[in-house]
Amino acid sequence: MKLKTFNAETCPPATRSGQKTIRFAVAGQITLSKAIVKELGLKIGDTISFHQDEEEEMNWFISVKTDDGFKLRQYKDADSLLCNNSAISKNIMDACFDVTDGYPSSVAFKVLLDNPEKLGGGQSITRLSPLRNEWRRRKRKKRTTINSKLTMENKTISIEALVKLYTIGDKNTKAELVKQFGKETFISPVGMPTTWEELAEAVSMHPINSLPFANPKDNREISVNADFVLDVLSEYINKDETGKIWKPNRKNSKEDKWFPVFQGNPGDGFSFNDSHYYHSASIVGSRHEYRDKARSDHAGKYFLKYYEQRSTI
After folding, report:
1. Among 104, 32, 106, 118, which Cα is nearest to 70's?
2. What is the pTM of this model?
């Protein structure tokens, strides 16, 4: 008889008490456990920086108490500390995990304190390693990059598919896509969030609890949630440089009012087509209108699924 044992050592919970870990949430919250805070001698106001090996993208490190790092603050009323940056969370998930079917809500890394590495100037960095229970989500092999000879002459691909491929691709894939289709196809205008999680963080909302229905049970509730997301989006990205929210003036026939236009067909399903505009008050498009084409295009490209969900009832 050959037994396989399942116990606290072989089947650890998400984050065992006392572990020296850092947890990255897709919404941007980065939490340092009580144990690692104590081990590194950190306190509120100290800083932390994150480093990636450009030659081995899955290798990530931290350094603490750096001049230009992220300031740490208290996590609720616990002894843990946290900072926020959604770009770091998504970069580390892109590099270390298979996110083809979407980002996990959060991932935890153990801080390997035994062998710190020294950089120039005496700076010390410490390696991060995914916890054992995160291994099932780890990348098994490097993603296939786009062949440089790929052409689109005899193949139609939607903008949304290209944007999705760019979002989940590694740096070689991104470079090849930009080379073939232009940077403007993939890069969002500065300051515009590309996901609901980023948008919620920007307006200090919880990405789940702030929705009208935290656990939607049917298409009607999904549609209501989508309409809420689009309301928040249009208000946020329609702000001008002073922070004032632009609203369409129905009495001004010379004012451009932009809105995304979609199409549906058996092959591609629901997809973004282009942005249109109107001047007079007698022609009204989507009630989510934008003050310029760039913002309307952005909404149509990056928040496509919410427009589709809104139309499910």
Report:
1. 32
2. 0.42
